[in-house]
């Protein structure tokens, strides 16, 4: 299914089940298919599950503009308005978590009952004088240079780290290939622009203004979004937020720790 967002871009979404809505926002470079292990779980328990292919990803159109977090937030708002969703549980993974946070800052909490930041790249990644926990700009530039030089190789190397396979997680070569095919299907232009925008965006002030129930889920061995830079700092900023740390999880915990994640999200939604 498709809808048009604020600038006329046609975006794809999927809508399953009936009941209280849960909107899943995918990770950078991935699309709706990444939630394969969450959507059936929640629809079978009486929830309506909606997920969005952001612009430049999946089945959505690939314009040359709109790869900043304000545009991402406005695209989410357009989807919620299109379906007139209310009492929503908003779940965002990685960059999807940053987009969910930006949605709350720009569009408020009227339609949102609760938010879950899963492996989210929050609150602020860039090293600055007032953000000594951040990462140097050189880290961004090194990744972008590798990305521009050999994008398939860059994603191939990241896949092992993504799933923390060195810890013995049962992730098959076929599953890793499935992840890589999703990443490679996204627009190179879109993924690069969004990567840069996410690295440079400061969410610290807006996170302090969140007043709805907030769950932060993060892997303690997440190499893509180190927990000391992201999850542990996020939970200190959001009033009343709860942190669930998975000691052996990397960034791709929606696969490696699917049962634990689903159970924690279900408990959060029911509460």
TrEMBL record:
Family annotation (Gene3D superfamilies): alpha/beta hydrolase
Domain AB hydrolase-1: start-end pairs: 21-257
The keyword rRNA processing is annotated on this UniProt entry: no
One example GO MF annotation: hydrolase activity
Keyword entries, A-Z: Hydrolase
Top-level taxon in the UniProt lineage: Bacteria
Listed GO CC annotations: membrane
InterPro entries: AB_hydrolase_1, AB_hydrolase_fold, AB_hydrolase_sf
Protein name: Alpha/beta hydrolase
């Amino acid at each position: 299914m498709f809808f048009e967002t604020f600038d006329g871009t046609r975006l794809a979404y999927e809508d399953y089940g009936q009941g209280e809505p849960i909107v899943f926002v995918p990770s950078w470079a991935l699309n709706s298919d990444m939630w394969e292990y969450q959507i059936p779980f929640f629809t079978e328990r009486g929830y309506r599950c909606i997920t969005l292919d952001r612009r430049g990803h999946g089945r959505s159109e690939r314009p040359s503009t709109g790869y900043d977090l304000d545009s991402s937030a406005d695209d989410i708002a357009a989807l919620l308005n299109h379906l007139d969703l209310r009492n929503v549980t908003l779940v965002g993974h990685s960059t999807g978590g940053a987009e969910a946070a930006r949605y709350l800052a720009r569009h408020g909490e009227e339609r949102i009952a609760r938010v879950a930041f899963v492996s989210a790249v929050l609150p602020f990644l860039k090293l600055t004088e007032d953000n000594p926990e951040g990462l140097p700009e050189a880290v961004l530039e090194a990744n972008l240079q590798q990305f521009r030089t050999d994008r398939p190789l860059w994603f191939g190397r990241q896949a092992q780290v993504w799933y923390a396979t060195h810890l013995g997680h049962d992730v098959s070569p076929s599953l890793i290939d499935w992840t890589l095919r999703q990443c490679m299907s996204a627009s190179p232009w879109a993924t690069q622009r969004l990567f840069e925008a996410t690295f440079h965006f400061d969410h610290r002030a807006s996170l302090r203004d969140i007043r709805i129930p907030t769950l932060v889920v993060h892997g303690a061995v997440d190499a893509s979004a180190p927990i000391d830079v992201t999850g542990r700092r996020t939970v200190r900023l959001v009033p009343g937020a709860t942190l669930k740390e998975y000691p052996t999880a990397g960034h791709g915990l929606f696969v490696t720790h699917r049962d634990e994640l689903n159970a924690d999200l279900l408990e959060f939604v029911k509460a």
